[in-house]
Structure formats: C-alpha cells, structure tokens
Write a structure and sequence with these properties.
It is a single chain. By secondary structure, this protein is an alpha+beta fold. The protein has a single domain, classed as Umud Fragment, subunit A, CATH 2.10.109. It has 3 helices and 12 strands. Strands 1, 2, 3, 4, 9, 10, 11 and 12 form an 8-stranded antiparallel beta sheet that branches. A 4-stranded antiparallel beta sheet has the order 7-6-5-8, with no helix packed on it. The model has no long low-confidence stretch (mean pLDDT 85).
Length: 181
Amino acid sequence: MKRFAGLIEVVKVVAIVFLSAIIIRTFVFQPFVVEGSSMESNFHNGEYLFIEKVSYKLKSPERGDVVVFRYPRDVRYNYIKRVVGLPGEQVEIKDGVVSIDGKVLKEDYVATGAKTYVDGKPELNYSITLTDHQYFVLGDNRAHSSDSREWGPLDRRFIIGRSALVLYPQSSFRAIASPTY
C-alpha cells in the first residue's frame, strides 16, 4: 500500500511540473529559433531566443520592439521583425529612408548597406497610413527581408510576443533592449 501511495505522489509531481511547463510556455515565455538573415546584424541564423508574452497583454508594442508573430499569409510560420510604424501613423519609405509622420526615423540598428535591394537598385518608394491595430514591421537587414513592404501592415492579433533574451549560442547570451528614439 505504501508503494502505491509513493507512486501516486510521483505521478502528482510529474503532472504538476508538466502542467506548469505548459502554462508558462502558453502564457509567459516561448522559445524561438531565428531562421535566415533578415534580422542581421542584430540576430543571427540559429540563435535561440525566449519570447516574452506577458507585457503585450498589458500594453501595446512600441517602436523598436523586436516581435515574433504568426506570418499573416500562412499562420503556420512564425517571423521575427522590428516594429517601425504604430497604429495611426503614416509610414513612408523613400530611397530606403524611413519616415514616420514626415520625420526621418533614426535607425542605427539597420544592417550596413541594407537600404538597397540585393541587385543594388534603390528600394521602391512606399507610403501607408496605418489603421487601428496595424503595425509596420521591417527586418534589420532590409535587403534580405520579407516584411510589411512586401505583404502589408501586421495586424496586432498576429503578434505572439516580444523578444526578451538570446540564450544560444552562449557567446551571444544577452537581454534584448529596444532602441530609444
């Protein structure tokens, strides 16, 4: 009988640990692996990140936040990009320079040479006014990024969370801070 009671205790502990892990992954943190070069030189292919989900339950994404979201054209895939434009703002891109409501955006995080396409031609001009719940997201490596320039603004409902930590490789371990403008 004592053996059976001990087994029940082990099953309880395993169940509690398992449920806790599911709750944490669903509502607090989620792992994410960077695939591709669209966020270079700030995030590299194969880096392992933790995505923090709680803050966007309490507040909206801010300019400069690096967010992970479900790709609007196929929600089976997750993307990582930087928030550049916020709801209600007018975003313009002219000759590779981003302006928000007519003011040039200082983007020190953009990869060198990323303001032109791969073939060397200047980026096409772009202008959009975002509506409620819409964000304009761009990769830091603009020459190699599928982002809002290609598939339009990102609706808030697709955003999973904010990139919080780079965990792997160990040499890249760091907290991720949004730039100040």
